[in-house]
Amino acid sequence: MARKMLIFGNGLGMALDAEHFSLSRALRDVWNHPRHVPRDQKRMVDRCVENNGDAPNSEDQLDTLHVVVAACNMLNKIGDDDVHWLTDDGQDFPKAVAKYIHRVASDLHLYDGELPARFLQPLFDFIRETKSNIATLNYDRLLYGALVDEGLMAGGYRGHLVDGMVDAGFSENRLHRLWGNDFGYYLHLHGSPLFYDDNNGIARKMTRDMLTMDSRTISNHIVLTHVTHKRSVIGASAVLSTYWDYLQACCHEAEEIIVFGYSGFDTHLNNVLAAYARTAGVRVVEWQGAGSQANREDYWERTLRTEHFDLIRMQNILDFTDW
User: For the whole model, what pTM was predicted?
Assistant: First the structure.
């Protein structure tokens, strides 16, 4: 059976626990925790999001924040020990924002619930048979953890799926299918709180049990910002840039692209989907509460720039098994 490209959005978690996997809930809970965001840093962030002291409630509110962080990073590069463009608080501001974003992603990741077996087992069987490629847009460990526990991501070149992370760290070379290997790829398109850079600047992945809400190690490989800045965040990470390069290769080799639980709001992903929607079959699996059938068909036709796709709408997308 030919490979397929499976792209999972936040709807996967929302179908299981809509409260926990709500981004606005995670942004708020981390913001309101006194240990995660100190008061002085909170005031500085608030000036960028302009939310009257309340937590940001969506990625759209992070637009100005991203611009300010980028400016601080630039000024940090051209400062010196004697004279600096920024105050101490300004110099530390990018780290404070990175910590907040990391804590939000960690909050979403640290969930003890599991996807139901009725959903997972057919997916496991399909991956074993086809070694299809998977890409995720969310930060949680629902799918990733299930695949690891099932032995489908054994690490290195041994698994049915690889993500380029081995004991020595991340390298694009570790994604090459050499020596007869025909594994599929697991692409963390928006990063993971498990990723971090060691003292030598090498990107690594901690194990799931190492991550806590108080972890001192902060990931810079997380895409949580206004949609207009996602490309620049991706471009700043060799890991994420590689995943996005491989996404196009995966779509190119796919017989079919299945878009699962994805809202369609990320233009950078939509451009990739539209580029391959005319050469590969596309199925969109989404919650039927997202809008009327006619409105959603029109939306996806405009997004994919083609009318040749199948839209599957379900009361509970975790009942889907037709991979």
Answer: 0.93
